[in-house]
Each structure stands twice: as C-alpha cells, then as structure tokens.
Amino acid sequence: MSDEDEQYQRKLLDLLNESQSFEAYMADVPAWRVEDHSSLAADDQRIHPYELSHAVRHSLVIAIDHLRGLRQQMVTGPVPQERRKRRRMHVQLDLAPYAPLTMARGAIENAAKAVWMISPPGRLDRVKRRIGVRAGELDNAHQLHKTIGVDPKIPLEQRRQDLLDLLTQAGVPEHEATEFVKKPPKHRRIVREAGESTPLGRDLVILWSMCSAVAHGELTATLGLLEREVIRRENGVVLARVTGQWSLVFWAALAARDLIARGLNLYQERARRYVAG
Fold this sequence. Notes:
By secondary structure, the protein is mostly helical. It contains 11 helices and 4 strands, in the order H-H-H-E-E-H-H-H-H-H-H-H-E-E-H. The strands form 2 sheets. Strands 1-2 form a two-stranded antiparallel sheet. Strands 3-4 form a two-stranded antiparallel ribbon. 34% of the residues are buried.
C-alpha cells in the first residue's frame, strides 16, 4: 500500500468512526420532534398527509443506515499483533472493489433528497419539492404494478390529481404544481441541486455519478475509476486484478457525511418554534 493510500485509509477510518454519532437518530424519537408553531410544523400542515418532516426523516435515516453499512462492511476487526509495528492503525479496513461505492451512493442519494426537500427558504418551494418526490414514488409504484399485473385500488391519474389539488390548495401556482406532479424530478436533478445548496457544489453530482456508474456495473467505471493490476496477457486479452480506490471511497463517504449533517441541522432549525423578537 502506498503512503497516499495509507493516509486515505486512516482518514476514512476516522470519518466512519465519527459518523457513528449519527446512528442515535435512527432510534431517538425525541430528536425528530417538530414543535408547534415551527416552520416545519406549518409545512406539514399545508400538505398533510404527506408531511415534509416525515419524508426528510425517512431519507436521513436511510442515508445514515447506508453509512453505517459502509463502516460495518469495511471495518473487519483489529490488526494482527505482528503487523502493528509496521502500521499506525490498530483496526483493519477491508476495501472491496465495488460494494463500498454502492453503499456510499445510497447514503449520498438519500441525504441529498432530504437536503433538497428541506433547504429552500420559501415554504412553497419546500412543499412543492416534497410532493414532487411523492409523485415520483407513485410513478415507480405504477410501473411495478404493471410489471406484476396488479391493478392498484386507486388509479395513478386520480392519485396525481389529489397531489395537484393539495399543492394548489397550499398556494403553489397551478402551472408549477402540474410540472412537479406530472414530471417529477429525477435523482440527478435532486442531487445536483442539493449540491448547489451546500459547499459541495457540483462536486456532489460528480461523486454521485461515479458511485452510480460502479453500482450499475458499468465497464467504463471499472476501467476508469478503480485500481487495476495486469496479471497476464493472452491472445489479445488482458487479465487484470481489480481493487478499490481508497481516495474515491473517502471522498464519497465525506460527501455523504457532510450532507447528512446538513440535513440534520436544517431539520432541527426548522423544527424549532420561532420566537418573536
């Protein structure tokens, strides 16, 4: 292992250990309390039963669980005693080629969705985004129903109309409501705009795209993003050993950690009751 890889390995271990503090939110119900007369309470009231607070909490918990899964997958136990003199780390990290980036992608995508929904300063933008996410979920469920040959109890168009009515009653202009319900935002847009609302900027959608390419098994990602060691060449075919890249996993995990922290901070800020000055 190179000195640079060892540095990224240590930094990644520190990051994963620090991120364990997020795991308390997976079970701590009081931490998610929305106070009466808070900004988030008013958002929830506008679009009941599709509360913004519920959707943001759900996305953040999933992101935290993916980051926890990344740590559980990579931390395999203590470094054997005979190797400790040569290394400054006493915990063994195992780097699989593909799975860590798939885990990081899940954490980034869900944390980005939470930040994207709750970050706009205007209430109508927040509720519009929340309902847009719900509309996308309905489209996905509709495709599943078609695939397995099941007719839903309520037709998709009726569900869409219910969402459209809810948004217009909340004060969203009809043409904007229609756009978000009939053409829900895709993951790429959500991740890109979430990044633009944070110091991560466009680096977020770049990291997410890299992780997604690996998760989807794209050959260009294997060849372009991961480490390769040529074992032999035979009849024009190269046999290579593919290993993970410590730096890429670190930066992806860092982006996920920062997004989760941003989402939690925004949630707590908007869930507090406003006090008149």
